[in-house]
Design brief:
Blueprint (H helix, E strand, L loop, with lengths): L1 E12 L2 E12 L3 E6 L5 H8 L7 E6 L3 E2 L8 H6 L1 E5 L10 H11 L5 H14 L15 H12 L6 E5 L7 H18 L2 E5 L3 H6 L3 E6 L2 E4 L1 H10 L1
Helix pairs in contact: 5-6
Length: 233
C-alpha cells in the first residue's frame, strides 16, 4: 500500500514556486532518501507531507486516506499521529527527564493508562538501545544518545511513516553510522516507511535505499540506486 502518493503536485510558498509537477510514491516498509542541493526544496517537500506547507495543486494522498490539498486543519492531529518526525536539532524538553519527555508525548496523544504508557516507554528505549537512560536529563546525554531518544519519541505511536530531516547532520561519523543502522532496523523490523533528507553521499552506498533527488524544482528517482537495491535482494 502506498504510504505517500504524489501525482503532479505543485508546492508554492508566498506565490513562489518551490516544487512543481512532483510525482512519486513511497510504499509501506520502504526506506527512501531525499537528496539535492541546498534550497532545492527537500525540507519543503517534507513539510508538505506533515501538513505545515500547503499543496497548491495536484493529488497528494497519505495512507490512502488523507488528501492533503485542502485538508482541514482539524484533521492534522490525526494525520500526524500516523507519522513520526526526527530533526537534526533534537528539540527535547530540557526541563524533563528522558522518561518524562516520552510520557508527555503519550499523554498528549491519548494514552490514559499509566501502565500502558510505562510499557511502551520501556519498549522504545529498548529498541533504540538505551533501556537504562530514562532517568537522565537531556543535557546528560551525548548527541548520539539524544538523537536516539528523539527517534524513540518519534516511534512511540507505532507510526506508519517516519520523516527524518538530516538526522545525522550534527553527529560524528561513528555516531551517524549507529543512527543509520537504527533507522534501517526500524524500517525492516517494524515495517515503518522511512523518508530521510540527507546531504551525506556515503549513506547511499553504505545503506542502499531508494533515492529521490530534488533538482530543477522537481523530484527525480535515481534508477541506478534502484538497480543497486535490486541487486542486493
Amino acid at each position: 500500500m502506498p504510504v505517500i502518493k504524489y501525482e503532479n503536485v505543485d508546492i508554492h510558498i508566498d506565490s513562489k514556486i518551490i516544487l512543481e509537477d512532483v510525482t512519486f510514491t513511497l510504499n509501506a516498509g520502504e526506506f527512501a532518501y531525499i537528496t539535492g542541493a541546498v534550497g532545492s526544496g527537500k525540507s519543503t517537500l517534507l513539510k508538505s507531507i506533515y501538513g505545515e506547507v500547503d499543496i497548491h495543486s495536484g493529488n497528494a494522498v497519505l495512507f490512502d486516506e488523507f488528501f492533503l490539498k485542502g485538508l482541514r486543519r482539524s484533521k492534522l492531529p490525526l494525520l500526524r499521529k500516523r507519522m513520526g518526525i526526527v530533526f537534526q536539532d533534537f528539540q527535547l524538553l530540557t526541563d524533563r527527564t528522558v522518561h518524562d519527555n516520552l510520557d508527555f508525548v503519550l499523554k498528549c496523544t491519548g494514552w490514559s493508562d499509566k501502565s500502558e504508557r510505562e510499557k511502551r516507554i520501556g519498549e522504545v528505549l529498548d529498541l533504540v538501545g538505551l533501556p537504562q537512560k530514562g532517568y537522565k536529563m537531556p543535557h546528560e546525554l551525548s548527541g548520539g544518545e539524544q538523537q536516539r531518544i528523539v527517534i524513540a519519541r518519534a516511534i512511540l505511536n507505532h507510526p506508519t511513516l517516519l520523516l527524518a530531516d538530516e538526522p545525522t547532520g550534527n553527529l560524528d561519523n561513528e555516531t551517524g553510522n549507529n543512527i543509520m543502522t537504527l533507522l534501517h532496523r526500524i524500517c525492516k523490523d517494524e515495517g515503518t516507511a522511512v523518508l530521510m533528507i540527507t546531504h551525506n553521499e556515503q549513506w547511499l552506498s553504505a545503506y542502499p535505499a531508494i533515492e529521490f533527488k530534488c533538482k530543477d524544482k522537481n523530484i527525480i528517482k535515481n534508477e541506478k540506486q534502484a538497480d543497486v537495491i535490486a541487486g542486493e535482494e
